Structures are given as structure tokens and as C-alpha cells.
Amino acid sequence: MAQVKSDMYYYDIVRKNIRKYRKEKGFTQQKLLDEADMSIDYLAEIESVKRKKTFSLATLGRIADVLEIDIRDFFNNN
Q1: Which long-range contacts (CB under 8 A, 24 or more apart) does 41-46 make?
Q2: pLDDT by residue (tens digit) across 10-24?
Q3: Which of 24, 20, 22, 49 has its CA nearest to residue 38?
């Protein structure tokens, strides 16, 4: 039987990928939040592994749309 991972395991993968794809696209946090209609504090909390901020699928979808990537890419653990 497969071991079930914690919720934070998946959030941490996604938050690292948000930061990775944002930087690959040359977006600052400010540019991403402006286009995704979010606050700077919220985006900083989402990207921070230390703060352990959770976020909705809708928020993740807005970020994927702005970065023009498939939302599934956020779940790659490479």
C-alpha cells in the first residue's frame, strides 16, 4: 500500500513551482500579483515554505493563467 503524504508536502511542491515558473517567465512578485489581482503579502505567503500558507485551486488557476502554463505543471516534483 502506498504511503499517504501530508497536505503540506503537496503545497510545498506547488509553492516551489510557482516561484520557479514566475522567475522563468521573468515576472517579479509585483508583476504577477498585479496581473493575478492578488496582494503582495498573499503572494509572498504562498511562495514561502516557512509560512505554510494554504491557497485555493482558483488562486492556483489564476496564477497558471497569468504565467501561461498548464496548472498540472505546478505539481511536478522535479
Answers
A1: 46/15, 46/18
A2: 999 999 999 999 999
A3: 22
